[in-house]
Specification:
Number of strands: 5
Number of domains: 1
CATH topology: Double Stranded RNA Binding Domain
CATH class: Alpha Beta
Helix content: 25-40%
CATH architecture: 2-Layer Sandwich
Order of helices and strands: HEHEHEEEHHH
CATH superfamily: Putative neuraminyllactose-binding hemagglutinin homolog like domain
Largest sheet: 5 strands, mixed
Radius of gyration: 25 Å
Distance between the termini: 98 Å
Number of helices: 6
Length: about 250
């Protein structure tokens, strides 16, 4: 009986401890990855056909294959397409890569536009051990952890105008992504070290601050790209590419 009462007491302690350590999870933030061109030229008025290559992260980090990073780059592809049409360019694609373009696509395109995003990190998130009351009655119970910390994102977006056939570069613009501080306090309990993909998929305490930083980058980058991609300059590049083939 004494052992049973002790066990019941421990179970009550476990339940009380679990209740007191519940963290309210914030709802998932919905970042605004959308851009509306400030003006629109007449359709195809530029007299230039651009083959658009979808934006990609240059480092191919698997952690960037899930939202909000994946959403960031998917929406950027859509907005670059809308931007080019709004400036009066004719468009082919978008393509995953220049290699995906067939002969007809290359022949009927004046310029290929390729967008690469370099997004670096400085600092890191850390595991913080939290109390797991189940260990009071089971020494084999897993350790519990939360993730928190501070890190920084910085990098650039590189836009290149290339020959659709050869890939030779004729024009390049770099849009800087300034250093941004990201402070994250995870609200998910883990029994081991989670991957970046797991944290972003399941922990809004990590996802939300990253999404807000990317949202700021998105608006800054697209607005800068709008200013840089000029019809007159693209027409000069078109002529340079044509001349290089003579």
């Amino acid at each position: 009986m004494k052992k049973l009462l002790t066990l019941i007491g421990l179970l009550l302690l476990v339940n009380c401890g679990s209740t007191n350590n519940v963290v309210t999870k914030a709802p998932k933030y919905n970042p605004n990855f959308d851009y509306t061109p400030p003006e629109r030229a007449n359709p195809r008025s530029a007299g230039i056909t651009i083959a658009l290559i979808n934006p990609v992260f240059s480092d191919k980090d698997p952690g960037k294959s899930v939202p909000p990073y994946a959403t960031f780059i998917e929406n950027m592809a859509d907005d670059f397409e809308e931007m080019l049409i709004a400036k009066g360019f004719s468009l082919r694609g978008p393509f995953k890569s220049r290699d995906e373009m067939v002969y007809g696509d290359k022949k009927n395109s004046d310029i290929a536009l390729e967008i690469k995003i370099t997004l670096k990190e400085e600092g890191k998130l850390r595991l913080h051990k939290k109390t797991n009351w189940a260990q009071a009655i089971n020494k084999y119970a897993s350790n519990h952890y939360t993730v928190a910390g501070k890190f920084y994102h910085f990098g650039n977006i590189i836009i290149e105008a290339t020959d659709p056939f050869t890939g030779e570069k004729f024009w390049k613009k770099t849009v800087s992504l300034p250093r941004k501080e990201i402070i994250a306090q995870g609200n998910q309990t883990w029994t081991g070290k989670p991957t970046t993909s797991q944290m972003l998929s399941l922990d809004t305490g990590i996802y939300n601050p990253v999404a807000k930083a990317l949202e700021q980058y998105y608006q800054e980058a697209i607005k800068t790209a709008w200013r840089h991609i000029d019809v007159n300059e693209m027409n000069l590049i078109k002529k340079q590419i044509q001349k290089s083939k003579q």
